[in-house]
Amino acid sequence: MAKHAKKWIFGSALTALAGVMALPTAASAQNEAALNDIEAERVPGNDDLKQGKVTEAIAALEAARRAEGNDPAILINLGQAYARAGDHGKARKMLIKARDNRRDYDMMLSSGEVISSRDAAVAALRWLDAQVQTAQLDVRR
């Protein structure tokens, strides 16, 4: 399947998900601000998620999903938002939809790293599994 144009994803979500993201330390403040502007424009709910406003982020991402269909970037961010809200079932459902999506395109993360949307979804699922396992261990203690 051919790859499509690069898209942006919520960078710190993938930091948490896969441990692979960090904003570039060598980037100038102007370049970083430009990246953040593009990123915020591309992914609805991004600013809300960064600020910990999970309910607002979910509402914006669900609206975007209804408007744009099952775009992998939106699904990944929605999965991450549901995970933060503690709804691991919905989080898994969104991440699986992103992983299995017929659309697979390169995504530029806020670090500048390019990763396929499918690989990003797989990393997110691994992160979710680790979170669920950790939560189960905490309950047993």
Explained architecture:
This is Tetratricopeptide repeat protein. Keywords: Signal. The chain has 141 residues and is mainly alpha-helical. The chain has one domain: Serine Threonine Protein Phosphatase 5, Tetratricopeptide repeat (Alpha Horseshoe), CATH 1.25.40. 65% of the residues lie in helices and 6% in strands. The protein has helices at residues 11-18, 29-42, 46-50, 54-68, 72-84, 88-99, 117-140; strands at residues 7-8, 106-108, 114-116. A hairpin with a 5-residue loop joins strand 2 and strand 3. Helix 5 packs parallel to helix 7 (117-140). 34% of the residues are buried.
How is the secondary structure organized here?
Layout (H helix, E strand, L loop, with lengths): L6 E2 L2 H8 L10 H14 L3 H5 L3 H15 L3 H13 L3 H12 L6 E3 L5 E3 H24 L1
Parallel strand pairs: 1-2
Antiparallel strand pairs: 2-3
Helix pairs in contact: 1-7, 4-5, 5-6, 5-7, 6-7
Keywords: Signal
Protein name: Tetratricopeptide repeat protein
Organism: Alterisphingorhabdus coralli
In terms of DSSP E residues, the strand content is: 5-15%
Rounded mean pLDDT score:
74
- The largest beta-sheet arranges its strands as 1-2-3
**Poorly predicted sequence stretches spanning 5 or more consecutive residues:** 1-13, 15-40
Distance between the termini: 47 Å
Largest sheet: 3 strands, mixed
Radius of gyration: 15 Å
Number of domain units: 1
Could you say which overall geometry the principal axes of the C-alpha atoms support?
globular
CATH class: Mainly Alpha
| CATH-derived topology | Serine Threonine Protein Phosphatase 5, Tetratricopeptide repeat
Count every helix, treating DSSP H or I runs of 4 or more residues as helices: 7
